[in-house]
């Protein structure tokens, strides 16, 4: 049995008995340091900054403007690289039955029962994680299972932490059925700055908590909808680490 008494719960708690398996899986995992969604953005930004700085350096006799712009360029590009960083992570536990992990880095902003009217049409427990611009913006599957539904909805771009953002903002919905037959829904929500949601899930494919479900560019939110009665292991305001923090356990 897994011990869920110490909160928050991280994969490291389960690591010791599975060290050999963990290391072998880690070696097989593609080592992505920069997320693929940032490749073109970073390349284009670097080219633009090089052109601007070169023009200033060779076009001005006074080099002070060049030095100022160069420093600003380095800072801005560093922020972009930081945003698109993609840490190598594995949950580190073979038995993931009934475990629900955080699908994103961020902060818990909602834990409440809500009426879910897109797919379930009943009452569900919703746990929401808000991602600021400094968080990793890759999203992981919250559970192992099979993808049952994927849907994208156009909408507004309100601040992601507002309650109405779950239903009014642009969003993508992924429904996953666990091996035990429990359906869990994850919803990627665009925010005031996030204007592009990327979802990799495809209906009918198997998914695992060590895989990326998608990516949201710049400040956003992910909601997880669970059956009522699910045991919750996080609290309001708590920070989460995607693919590492155990947020709940299904009945």
From TrEMBL:
Pathway: Phospholipid metabolism; phosphatidylethanolamine biosynthesis; phosphatidylethanolamine from CDP-diacylglycerol: step 2/2. The active site is at 220 (schiff-base intermediate with substrate). It comes from the Bacteria. Binds 1 pyruvoyl group covalently per subunit. The keyword Transmembrane applies. Is synthesized initially as an inactive proenzyme. Formation of the active enzyme involves a self-maturation process in which the active site pyruvoyl group is generated from an internal serine residue via an autocatalytic post-translational modification. Two non-identical subunits are generated from the proenzyme in this reaction, and the pyruvate is formed at the N-terminus of the alpha chain, which is derived from the carboxyl end of the proenzyme. GO terms for molecular function: phosphatidylserine decarboxylase activity. It catalyses: a 1,2-diacyl-sn-glycero-3-phospho-L-serine + H(+) = a 1,2-diacyl-sn-glycero-3-phosphoethanolamine + CO2. The keyword Protein transport does not apply. The record marks 219-220 as: Cleavage (non-hydrolytic). Its EC number is 4.1.1.65. GO terms for biological process: phosphatidylethanolamine biosynthetic process. InterPro entries: PS_Dcarbxylase (IPR003817), PSD-A (IPR033175). It is found in: Cell membrane. Keywords: Cell membrane, Decarboxylase, Lipid biosynthesis, Lipid metabolism, Lyase, Membrane, Phospholipid biosynthesis, Phospholipid metabolism, Pyruvate, Transmembrane, Transmembrane helix, Zymogen. The modification Pyruvic acid (Ser) is found at residue 220. GO terms for cellular component: plasma membrane. Its cofactor is pyruvate. It is a peripheral membrane protein. The chain crosses the membrane at residues 38-58, 64-84. Catalyzes the formation of phosphatidylethanolamine (PtdEtn) from phosphatidylserine (PtdSer). Heterodimer of a large membrane-associated beta subunit and a small pyruvoyl-containing alpha subunit. Belongs to the phosphatidylserine decarboxylase family. PSD-A subfamily. This is Phosphatidylserine decarboxylase proenzyme.
């Amino acid at each position: 049995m897994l011990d869920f008494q110490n909160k928050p719960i991280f994969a490291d708690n389960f690591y010791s008995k599975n060290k050999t398996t963990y290391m072998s899986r880690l070696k097989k995992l593609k080592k992505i340091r920069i997320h693929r969604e940032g490749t073109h953005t970073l390349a284009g930004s670097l080219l633009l900054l090089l052109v601007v700085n070169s023009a200033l350096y060779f076009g001005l006799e006074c080099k002070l403007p060049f030095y100022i712009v160069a420093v600003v360029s380095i800072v801005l590009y560093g922020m972009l690289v930081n945003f698109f960083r993609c840490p190598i992570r594995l949950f580190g536990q073979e038995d993931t039955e009934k475990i629900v992990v955080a699908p994103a880095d961020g902060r818990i902003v909602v834990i409440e029962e809500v009426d879910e009217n897109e797919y379930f049409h009943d009452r569900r427990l919703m746990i929401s994680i808000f991602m600021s611009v400094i968080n990793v913006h890759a999203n992981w599957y919250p559970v192992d299972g099979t993808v049952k539904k994927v849907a994208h909805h156009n909408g507004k771009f309100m601040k992601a932490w507002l309650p109405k953002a779950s239903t009014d903002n642009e969003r993508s919905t992924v429904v996953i059925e666990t091996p035990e037959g429990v359906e869990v829904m994850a919803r990627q929500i665009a925010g005031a700055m996030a204007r592009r949601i990327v979802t990799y899930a495809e209906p009918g494919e198997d998914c695992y908590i060590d895989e990326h479900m998608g990516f949201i560019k710049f400040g956003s939110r992910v909601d997880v909808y669970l059956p009522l009665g699910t045991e919750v292991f996080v609290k309001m305001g708590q920070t989460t680490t995607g693919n590492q923090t155990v947020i709940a356990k299904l009945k």
